[in-house]
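User: Run a structure prediction on this.
Assistant: Running it now.
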Amino acid sequence: MGQRLAETVAKGRGVTLLWLSVAWVLAAAAVAMLPMRRQYVPGVALLIAAPVLIAMIGMQVAWWAGALALAAFVSMFRNPLRYFYARLRGQRPELPDL
């Protein structure tokens, strides 16, 4: 397990993935501090970018690291994910007041 991570970092792929992941986390924290009406556009961009990063983590590091990243993502974005799930079922959920 540790050897695979060391090989990934030695090839240079893990370092780029690490910086992309750190940038995503910092961007998510910055967006969370914005007023609700200004969170939608950057929040959707983060919501779209997250599965790509999670898949890369799962492929380049380990499956369990990808699973932990997925759990953190679902925890952070539970309300938007509930909204999109309700929309997929044909419901019209309310948006919070701006």
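The chain has one domain: 2-88.
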